[in-house]
Amino acid sequence: MKVIEKINEIKERLLIHNNNQESIILVPTMGALHDGHLTLVKEAKKIAKIVVVSIFVNKAQFNNFEDFEKYPRNLIKDIEALKDCGINYIFAPSHQEIFQEQNNFEVNVLGIADCLCGRYRPKHFNGVALIISKLFNIIKPNHAIFGMKDFQQLLIIKKLVNDFNFSVKIHGFETVRNNQGLALSSRNQRLNNHQLLIASNIFRILNEIKNNFRNNKNILMEKKQELLAIGFDKVEYLEIRDENNLQLIENFQTNQQARIFIAVYLQGVRLIDNLAIS
Protein backbone atom coordinates (compact mmCIF):
# COMPACT_ATOMS: atom_id res chain seq x y z
CA MET A 1 0.00 0.00 0.00
CA LYS A 2 1.42 3.34 -1.11
CA VAL A 3 0.29 6.71 0.30
CA ILE A 4 0.46 9.44 -2.35
CA GLU A 5 -0.17 13.16 -1.91
CA LYS A 6 0.71 14.54 -5.35
CA ILE A 7 -1.53 14.47 -8.42
CA ASN A 8 1.32 13.88 -10.87
CA GLU A 9 2.60 10.90 -8.91
CA ILE A 10 -0.74 9.12 -8.64
CA LYS A 11 -1.40 9.73 -12.35
CA GLU A 12 2.00 8.30 -13.33
CA ARG A 13 1.53 5.19 -11.22
CA LEU A 14 -2.01 4.52 -12.39
CA LEU A 15 -1.03 5.04 -16.03
CA ILE A 16 1.14 1.91 -15.73
CA HIS A 17 -1.87 -0.10 -14.52
CA ASN A 18 -4.04 1.32 -17.30
CA ASN A 19 -1.42 0.40 -19.89
CA ASN A 20 -1.38 -3.12 -18.45
CA GLN A 21 -5.19 -3.18 -18.78
CA GLU A 22 -5.61 -3.65 -15.04
CA SER A 23 -9.00 -2.44 -13.84
CA ILE A 24 -9.02 0.38 -11.27
CA ILE A 25 -11.69 1.19 -8.69
CA LEU A 26 -11.93 4.39 -6.67
CA VAL A 27 -13.33 4.53 -3.14
CA PRO A 28 -13.80 8.26 -2.43
CA THR A 29 -13.83 9.22 1.27
CA MET A 30 -13.33 12.25 3.47
CA GLY A 31 -11.40 10.20 6.01
CA ALA A 32 -12.47 9.54 9.61
CA LEU A 33 -12.82 5.97 8.38
CA HIS A 34 -15.20 3.52 10.04
CA ASP A 35 -16.43 -0.01 9.35
CA GLY A 36 -18.76 1.30 6.65
CA HIS A 37 -15.79 2.58 4.65
CA LEU A 38 -13.85 -0.62 5.23
CA THR A 39 -16.82 -2.65 3.99
CA LEU A 40 -16.80 -0.56 0.79
CA VAL A 41 -13.09 -1.29 0.42
CA LYS A 42 -13.69 -5.04 0.76
CA GLU A 43 -16.43 -4.85 -1.84
CA ALA A 44 -14.18 -2.79 -4.12
CA LYS A 45 -11.57 -5.56 -4.09
CA LYS A 46 -14.17 -7.93 -5.56
CA ILE A 47 -14.80 -5.56 -8.46
CA ALA A 48 -11.35 -4.46 -9.68
CA LYS A 49 -7.70 -5.42 -9.36
CA ILE A 50 -6.32 -2.01 -8.35
CA VAL A 51 -8.02 -0.25 -5.40
CA VAL A 52 -7.49 3.45 -4.76
CA VAL A 53 -8.93 5.04 -1.61
CA SER A 54 -9.01 8.82 -1.69
CA ILE A 55 -8.99 10.80 1.56
CA PHE A 56 -9.87 14.44 1.13
CA VAL A 57 -12.09 16.70 3.24
CA ASN A 58 -13.70 18.75 0.50
CA LYS A 59 -14.30 22.29 1.72
CA ALA A 60 -16.34 23.04 -1.42
CA GLN A 61 -19.22 20.80 -0.28
CA PHE A 62 -19.61 22.38 3.18
CA ASN A 63 -22.10 25.24 3.29
CA ASN A 64 -21.33 25.72 7.00
CA PHE A 65 -17.72 26.63 7.83
CA GLU A 66 -18.13 25.50 11.46
CA ASP A 67 -19.24 22.07 10.24
CA PHE A 68 -16.15 21.90 8.02
CA GLU A 69 -13.89 22.85 10.94
CA LYS A 70 -15.47 20.23 13.23
CA TYR A 71 -15.31 17.42 10.70
CA PRO A 72 -13.06 14.71 12.26
CA ARG A 73 -9.62 14.30 10.70
CA ASN A 74 -6.93 11.76 11.55
CA LEU A 75 -4.92 10.68 8.52
CA ILE A 76 -2.50 8.55 10.55
CA LYS A 77 -5.40 6.59 12.05
CA ASP A 78 -7.01 6.23 8.60
CA ILE A 79 -3.80 4.86 7.12
CA GLU A 80 -3.54 2.39 10.00
CA ALA A 81 -7.14 1.24 9.40
CA LEU A 82 -6.39 0.57 5.71
CA LYS A 83 -2.98 -1.07 6.01
CA ASP A 84 -4.32 -4.63 6.29
CA CYS A 85 -7.15 -4.20 3.76
CA GLY A 86 -5.04 -5.15 0.75
CA ILE A 87 -5.54 -1.90 -1.17
CA ASN A 88 -2.96 -0.51 -3.56
CA TYR A 89 -3.01 3.25 -3.05
CA ILE A 90 -4.21 5.93 -0.68
CA PHE A 91 -4.54 9.27 -2.44
CA ALA A 92 -4.45 11.92 0.29
CA PRO A 93 -3.83 15.31 -1.33
CA SER A 94 -3.81 18.65 0.45
CA HIS A 95 -6.38 21.33 -0.28
CA GLN A 96 -3.71 23.27 -2.14
CA GLU A 97 -2.89 20.26 -4.31
CA ILE A 98 -6.50 19.81 -5.43
CA PHE A 99 -7.42 23.49 -5.64
CA GLN A 100 -4.12 25.04 -6.66
CA GLU A 101 -5.73 28.42 -7.26
CA GLN A 102 -9.18 29.90 -7.03
CA ASN A 103 -11.58 27.91 -9.20
CA ASN A 104 -12.71 29.54 -12.41
CA PHE A 105 -15.50 27.01 -12.91
CA GLU A 106 -18.33 25.44 -10.95
CA VAL A 107 -20.43 22.35 -11.55
CA ASN A 108 -24.04 23.39 -11.09
CA VAL A 109 -26.32 20.44 -10.24
CA LEU A 110 -29.90 21.00 -11.36
CA GLY A 111 -33.24 19.40 -10.56
CA ILE A 112 -32.54 16.50 -8.24
CA ALA A 113 -30.34 18.70 -6.04
CA ASP A 114 -33.26 20.97 -5.13
CA CYS A 115 -34.80 18.66 -2.53
CA LEU A 116 -33.72 16.75 0.59
CA CYS A 117 -30.10 17.63 1.52
CA GLY A 118 -29.77 19.97 -1.45
CA ARG A 119 -32.63 22.12 -0.21
CA TYR A 120 -31.04 22.69 3.17
CA ARG A 121 -27.38 22.71 2.13
CA PRO A 122 -27.10 25.24 -0.72
CA LYS A 123 -24.40 24.36 -3.28
CA HIS A 124 -23.44 21.23 -1.31
CA PHE A 125 -23.92 18.97 -4.31
CA ASN A 126 -22.15 21.45 -6.58
CA GLY A 127 -19.11 20.88 -4.35
CA VAL A 128 -19.61 17.11 -4.43
CA ALA A 129 -19.90 17.08 -8.23
CA LEU A 130 -16.79 19.25 -8.53
CA ILE A 131 -14.53 17.04 -6.38
CA ILE A 132 -15.84 13.81 -7.92
CA SER A 133 -15.21 15.22 -11.41
CA LYS A 134 -11.66 16.15 -10.40
CA LEU A 135 -11.02 12.74 -8.84
CA PHE A 136 -12.36 10.94 -11.92
CA ASN A 137 -10.06 13.02 -14.13
CA ILE A 138 -7.05 12.39 -11.87
CA ILE A 139 -7.56 8.69 -11.09
CA LYS A 140 -9.36 7.71 -14.32
CA PRO A 141 -11.00 4.71 -12.62
CA ASN A 142 -13.00 2.07 -14.42
CA HIS A 143 -15.25 1.78 -11.36
CA ALA A 144 -16.20 3.82 -8.30
CA ILE A 145 -18.17 2.71 -5.25
CA PHE A 146 -20.36 4.74 -2.89
CA GLY A 147 -22.49 3.93 0.14
CA MET A 148 -26.26 4.22 -0.17
CA LYS A 149 -26.68 6.14 3.10
CA ASP A 150 -26.02 9.22 0.95
CA PHE A 151 -28.60 8.09 -1.59
CA GLN A 152 -29.20 11.51 -3.14
CA GLN A 153 -25.46 11.90 -3.63
CA LEU A 154 -25.27 8.47 -5.29
CA LEU A 155 -28.07 9.36 -7.69
CA ILE A 156 -26.45 12.70 -8.56
CA ILE A 157 -23.08 11.04 -9.23
CA LYS A 158 -24.74 8.51 -11.54
CA LYS A 159 -26.31 11.37 -13.47
CA LEU A 160 -22.98 13.26 -13.46
CA VAL A 161 -21.28 10.26 -15.08
CA ASN A 162 -24.02 10.01 -17.69
CA ASP A 163 -24.18 13.73 -18.50
CA PHE A 164 -20.40 14.26 -18.66
CA ASN A 165 -19.65 10.92 -20.36
CA PHE A 166 -17.21 9.65 -17.74
CA SER A 167 -16.10 6.10 -18.50
CA VAL A 168 -16.76 4.99 -14.94
CA LYS A 169 -19.21 2.36 -13.71
CA ILE A 170 -20.85 3.50 -10.46
CA HIS A 171 -21.60 0.92 -7.77
CA GLY A 172 -23.91 1.58 -4.83
CA PHE A 173 -23.54 -0.48 -1.67
CA GLU A 174 -26.17 -0.94 1.04
CA THR A 175 -25.85 1.16 4.18
CA VAL A 176 -23.70 -0.44 6.87
CA ARG A 177 -25.27 -0.29 10.33
CA ASN A 178 -24.27 -1.02 13.91
CA ASN A 179 -26.05 -3.61 16.05
CA GLN A 180 -28.77 -1.10 16.95
CA GLY A 181 -29.42 -0.24 13.29
CA LEU A 182 -27.72 3.17 13.32
CA ALA A 183 -26.15 3.98 9.95
CA LEU A 184 -22.39 4.23 10.33
CA SER A 185 -21.13 7.77 9.76
CA SER A 186 -18.00 9.75 10.54
CA ARG A 187 -20.26 12.27 12.27
CA ASN A 188 -21.22 9.60 14.83
CA GLN A 189 -17.80 10.21 16.41
CA ARG A 190 -19.16 13.50 17.75
CA LEU A 191 -21.89 11.75 19.78
CA ASN A 192 -21.52 10.22 23.25
CA ASN A 193 -22.92 6.78 24.15
CA HIS A 194 -26.26 8.14 25.35
CA GLN A 195 -26.69 10.21 22.20
CA LEU A 196 -25.80 7.20 20.04
CA LEU A 197 -28.66 5.28 21.71
CA ILE A 198 -31.04 8.12 20.88
CA ALA A 199 -29.73 8.18 17.30
CA SER A 200 -30.44 4.45 16.90
CA ASN A 201 -34.16 5.29 16.95
CA ILE A 202 -33.83 6.63 13.41
CA PHE A 203 -33.76 3.13 11.90
CA ARG A 204 -36.68 1.98 14.06
CA ILE A 205 -38.74 4.98 12.95
CA LEU A 206 -37.94 4.32 9.28
CA ASN A 207 -39.06 0.71 9.58
CA GLU A 208 -42.27 1.67 11.37
CA ILE A 209 -43.07 4.11 8.56
CA LYS A 210 -42.29 1.44 5.95
CA ASN A 211 -44.64 -1.04 7.62
CA ASN A 212 -47.52 1.33 8.37
CA PHE A 213 -47.59 4.27 5.93
CA ARG A 214 -50.16 2.65 3.64
CA ASN A 215 -52.69 2.52 6.47
CA ASN A 216 -51.82 5.78 8.23
CA LYS A 217 -51.72 8.96 6.15
CA ASN A 218 -50.52 10.97 9.14
CA ILE A 219 -47.58 8.75 10.04
CA LEU A 220 -44.86 11.12 8.80
CA MET A 221 -46.13 13.95 11.00
CA GLU A 222 -46.60 11.59 13.94
CA LYS A 223 -43.05 10.27 13.62
CA LYS A 224 -41.62 13.78 13.37
CA GLN A 225 -43.25 14.57 16.71
CA GLU A 226 -41.97 11.30 18.18
CA LEU A 227 -38.41 12.07 17.10
CA LEU A 228 -38.54 15.44 18.83
CA ALA A 229 -39.99 13.86 21.97
CA ILE A 230 -37.19 11.26 22.02
CA GLY A 231 -34.59 14.02 22.16
CA PHE A 232 -33.66 15.09 18.64
CA ASP A 233 -33.13 18.84 18.26
CA LYS A 234 -34.75 19.16 14.87
CA VAL A 235 -36.25 17.11 12.05
CA GLU A 236 -35.05 18.71 8.85
CA TYR A 237 -37.01 16.42 6.58
CA LEU A 238 -38.89 13.12 6.72
CA GLU A 239 -40.30 12.29 3.30
CA ILE A 240 -41.16 9.50 0.90
CA ARG A 241 -39.74 9.99 -2.59
CA ASP A 242 -39.28 8.11 -5.85
CA GLU A 243 -35.78 6.63 -5.76
CA ASN A 244 -35.22 7.17 -9.49
CA ASN A 245 -35.94 10.91 -9.70
CA LEU A 246 -36.52 11.96 -6.06
CA GLN A 247 -40.02 13.23 -6.84
CA LEU A 248 -42.16 13.53 -3.71
CA ILE A 249 -44.68 10.70 -3.38
CA GLU A 250 -48.04 11.50 -1.84
CA ASN A 251 -50.07 8.63 -3.28
CA PHE A 252 -47.92 5.52 -3.36
CA GLN A 253 -48.42 2.98 -6.14
CA THR A 254 -47.41 -0.60 -5.46
CA ASN A 255 -45.09 -0.73 -8.50
CA GLN A 256 -43.15 2.41 -7.50
CA GLN A 257 -39.54 2.22 -6.36
CA ALA A 258 -39.68 4.48 -3.34
CA ARG A 259 -37.59 5.37 -0.29
CA ILE A 260 -38.11 7.10 3.01
CA PHE A 261 -35.56 9.86 3.55
CA ILE A 262 -34.68 11.48 6.86
CA ALA A 263 -32.36 14.20 8.17
CA VAL A 264 -32.27 15.14 11.84
CA TYR A 265 -30.09 17.07 14.24
CA LEU A 266 -28.91 15.66 17.57
CA GLN A 267 -26.78 17.89 19.79
CA GLY A 268 -25.89 19.91 16.73
CA VAL A 269 -24.81 16.86 14.71
CA ARG A 270 -26.64 16.31 11.43
CA LEU A 271 -27.59 12.68 10.72
CA ILE A 272 -29.16 11.30 7.54
CA ASP A 273 -30.54 7.92 6.54
CA ASN A 274 -32.97 6.31 4.13
CA LEU A 275 -34.81 3.04 3.67
CA ALA A 276 -36.27 1.39 0.58
CA ILE A 277 -39.99 0.73 0.65
CA SER A 278 -40.30 -1.51 -2.39
Question: Describe it for me?
Answer:
The protein is α/β, with parallel strands linked by helices and 278 residues long. The protein has two domains: 2-173, Rossmann fold; 186-276, Pantoate--beta-alanine Ligase, Chain: A,domain 2. 40% of the residues lie in helices and 19% in strands. The protein is built from eleven helices and nine strands. It has helices at 7-19, 35-47, 65-70, 75-82, 95-98, 116-120, 124-139, 151-164, 193-199, 201-212, 219-230, and strands at residues 2-4, 24-29, 50-55, 89-91, 143-147, 169-173, 234-242, 258-266, 269-276. The strands form two sheets. It has a six-stranded parallel beta sheet, sandwiched between helices. Helix 7 (124-139) crosses helix 8 (151-164). The chain is globular, with a radius of gyration of 19 Å. The termini are far apart.
Secondary structure layout plus pairing:
Elements: E1 2-4, H1 7-19, E2 24-29, H2 35-47, E3 50-55, H3 65-70, H4 75-82, E4 89-91, H5 95-98, H6 116-120, H7 124-139, E5 143-147, H8 151-164, E6 169-173, H9 193-199, H10 201-212, H11 219-230, E7 234-242, E8 258-266, E9 269-276
Parallel strand pairs: 1-4, 2-3, 2-5, 3-4, 5-6
Antiparallel strand pairs: 7-8, 8-9
Helix pairs in contact: 7-8, 10-11
